[in-house]
Design goal:
Layout (H helix, E strand, L loop, with lengths): L13 H6 L1 H4 L5 H9 L2 E5 L3 H13 L3 E5 L24 H12 L4 E5 L8 H5 L4 E4 L4 H14 L3 E7 L2 E7 L8 H4 L12 H4 L3 H20 L8 E6 L4 E6 L22 H4 L7 E3 H10 L4 E5 L3 H6 L6 E2 L8 H10 L4 E5 L4 H12 L5 E4 L1 H5 L3
Parallel strand pairs: 1-2, 1-4, 2-3, 4-5, 9-13, 10-11, 10-12, 12-13
Antiparallel strand pairs: 5-6, 6-7, 7-8
Length: 380
């Protein structure tokens, strides 16, 4: 995507004067500060739990240009914490869902969306066009990549992470003396030692709170007001209502990053490694012929949500929503059936079925994703 060139404003429109009147009465912001917010650009990497509250409050605050990087689709299990998305956007791209919600909230913000996963090939190109970077990712590989790209480009990075009822927030690379992620975590934590959200979960309010605090840091950076979490990390324990602020020292050795190829091993995570999984696909026409010829030899799994399945479904298919596919009982059933039947996966358009095939492949279950999904199969 081509990022538009920034146009500096020195005024607020009539709509903005009314919209931001509670900001304008604050001596810390006023009209000058609101214009600074309007002339600022922020990139949010991830439109999930953290990204939801970050994006909504960036827009409400009046940030002039907001970038969103995400390559995922909305699932029902997201809605417990990813409040920018809605039930009627399940199955849609998260960047599309987020863009529509933001436009309803504040049409004054310019929105730039990137339907791609941040990676060593695109990180520098995307990040360099924004003033401040907000890390709303959920794995260490991506966090190190964002951190290192910000070091190379001299961009301030607002960091947030959550797990369960606990969250952390800090500001990295604000100036030459500032610490960065490698000062906090010199070595990437072992995948076996650090549980993921999928394994241990996260309560929705944790992502909401940490995301809001990330926006608070962004506002202070733009306005040059207040105490910024530069050289400090704030830790919240929401379950026991504990909060502590820890000091973080900078080591100049952790700043000597000239190019992203130096630390390629750091940027690998489980989700990225899924790209190496070969997905077996079948086009709708071929599946239709096969299904008519041997219906008793086929297990057709529909991974759409239950509401979608009840509206329309292929005769003989069984409903196992993608969000439920990790459950032991479902996996045992599919494993048993796969011994005597060929397994095919279907969804609305073919995207969720590919995800499902990846999940099943991890459990040594062979399956084929139907290209184009039900939308294509309806034509036959």
């Amino acid at each position: 995507m081509t990022v538009s060139k920034d146009i500096k404003f020195n005024f607020l429109s009539k709509d903005e004067l009314e919209r931001y009147q509670k900001h304008l009465t604050l001596k810390e912001i006023g009209s000058e500060g609101q214009i600074d917010l309007k002339n600022s650009s922020v990139l949010c990497i991830g439109a999930g739990g953290l990204g939801s509250s970050v994006l909504l409050y960036l827009a409400a605050t009046g940030i002039g240009k907001i970038g969103i990087v995400d390559n995922d689709y909305v699932e029902k299990s997201n809605l417990q914490r990813q409040i920018i998305h809605e039930t009627n956007t399940i199955g849609n791209l998260k960047i599309d869902s987020a863009r529509e919600r933001i436009k309803k909230l504040n049409p004054n913000s310019e929105l730039l969306t990137f339907f791609e996963r941040i990676n060593p090939n695109n990180a520098l190109e995307i990040i360099r066009e924004f003033d401040i970077i907000c890390d709303c990712s959920d794995n260490f590989g991506t966090r190190y990549l964002i951190n290192d790209a910000c070091l190379i480009l001299n961009k301030p990075l607002v960091f947030g992470s959550v797990q369960g009822f606990e969250g952390q927030i800090s500001v990295f690379n604000l100036n030459k003396q500032s610490p960065n992620l490698r000062d906090l975590l010199p070595e990437s934590p072992s995948k076996n030692a650090v549980p993921s959200c999928a394994e241990y979960g996260v309560v929705g309010v944790t992502t909401g709170l940490i995301g809001i605090l990330q926006v608070n840091e962004i506002i202070k950076i733009i306005l040059k007001k207040g105490e910024i979490l530069d050289g400090k990390i704030l830790v919240f324990d929401l379950l026991n209502i504990n909060m502590k602020k820890l000091n973080l020292k900078s080591d100049q050795l952790n700043k000597r990053i000239k190019n992203l190829s130096e630390f390629a091993d750091y940027y690998i995570d489980d989700e990225c490694s899924e790209k190496n999984i070969v997905i077996n696909r079948i086009n709708a026409n071929d599946f239709n012929s096969l299904y008519k010829a041997k219906p008793n030899k086929i297990l057709l799994i529909d991974v759409r949500e239950n509401e979608e399945f009840s509206t329309f479904a292929i005769e003989g298919s069984i409903s196992i929503p993608l969000s439920h596919l990790n459950q032991d009982s479902d996996l045992e059933f599919i494993q048993k059936e796969s011994l005597i039947k060929d397994v095919f996966i279907i969804c609305k358009s073919g995207k969720r079925s590919e995800k499902a095939s990846k999940i099943l492949s991890k459990f040594k279950i062979k399956s084929r994703s139907i290209e184009g999904g039900i939308e294509k199969l309806k034509k036959y």
